[in-house]
Amino acid sequence: MNNLSLYGWNDSLFQLKQTSQYKHLFHGRVSAVNKTNYEVITEGGLLLCELTGNLLYGRSLFELPCTGDWIIFQPFDDNKGIIVDVLPRKHTLFRKKSGTISDRQAIASHVDKAFIVQSLDANFSVRRTERFMVQVLEENIQPVLILTKSDLEFSRHQVDESLKHIARQIPIFFTSILSPETILPVRKFIRQGESIVFVGSSGVGKSSLINVLCERTVLPTSEISKSSGKGRHTSTRREMVLMDDSGILIDTPGVREFGLASDNPEALADIFDISDFAESCRFENCTHVDEPGCAVVEAVNNGLLKFEVYNSYLKLRKESWYFSTSEHEKRKRDKYFARVSDEAKRIKKR
User: Fold this and answer.
1) How is the cofactor bound, in the record's words (predicted)?
2) What's the CATH number for 93-251?
3) Does the predicted model carry a pTM greater than 0.70?
4) What are the pLDDT digits (tens) for 171-203?
């Protein structure tokens, strides 16, 4: 028997279930999504479930169950069931679906914290961390930066300098699976019943970190590649595991590109430490590009705001606007952002 409260079930979810016409049936949480079925954690154990025709053909791909979703099901065999309803999602991490303009792909739902995992080798990228932060904060999920492979040789000073604008806003942990003392603070940071999604590129050590946090092998891992010095891609699906007397960890496959699907481009100013400067701009609706009296551009020119941070802000703001606007507005925005790009280049040359 499973205690579903350990998997995040609470009074709020119970109230959501009461709004469903299927409230008299059983509920469970999707632990993994396969090509033809869903693995669902229930009070009675693990079930393999399929969708009813109404769900399969009556909803968009984005609305179909993802890892972390709470569903209502009808059992029909010892270890099988039919999903008849999906409870409304909260705190859903998603990204722009590859090859599309504005379609979203749900990665995990009912998430409390997102561990943005980067390794302290050639994979390390502040810009990638910023991108993950934007999408995580969009859904009111708490971002946490986990830097792995701290046993490798790296410049702590350079890393700290590059993360200054991020360190003011989110917790950062330097870890190595070879040093248990670096894992302990991360384990203490996870509370019972919390759902944590792990995101990052392939080979940064997400699955290995989850195994160490769980103090047992719950996910497959592979050896380090001798040619590249990186871990080989292991995770092929989004999968949920339970820590003993602690939280729920959701592993995700590594992504080469995390397409931004943010509907709130203006919120980026807070993430990039630009808000304080923006308050001193001459115009309230300043775009921080070429307006007279722009305190943000002045901060870049005076070295108070790093150009790399400012340029990343402009790039992600463009991507966010492009995702959230109509096709007609996109054509107008394209002309505007062409000017933004040219102006950013001129600022760098000053």
Assistant:
1) Binds 1 zinc ion per subunit.
2) 3.40.50.300
3) yes
4) 999 999 999 999 999 999 999 999 999 998 888
**CATH architecture, domain defined by 4-86:** Beta Barrel (2.40)
Q: Alpha-carbon distance 1 to 45, whole Å? A: 6
Work out the pLDDT band at 265, boundaries 50, 70, 90: low
Residue 218, token pair as written in the block = 């719950």
Please state the residue numbers annotated as binding site for GTP.
148-151, 200-208
**pLDDT at residue 339 greater than cutoff 70:** no
User: CA nearest 92: which of 72, 119, 62, 121?
Assistant: 62
DSSP 8-class letter at 124: -
**Binding site as annotated, residues for Zn(2+):** 281, 286, 288, 294
Q: Tens digits of per-residue pLDDT, 38-83?
A: 999 999 999 999 999 989 898 888 889 999 999 999 998 889 999 9
- The C-alpha atoms of residue 325 and residue 262 are separated, in whole angstroms, by 11
| Domain ranges for the chain | 4-86, 93-251, 265-349
The binding site comprises 148-151, 200-208, 281, 286, 288, 294
* 93-251 and 265-349, same CATH topology: no
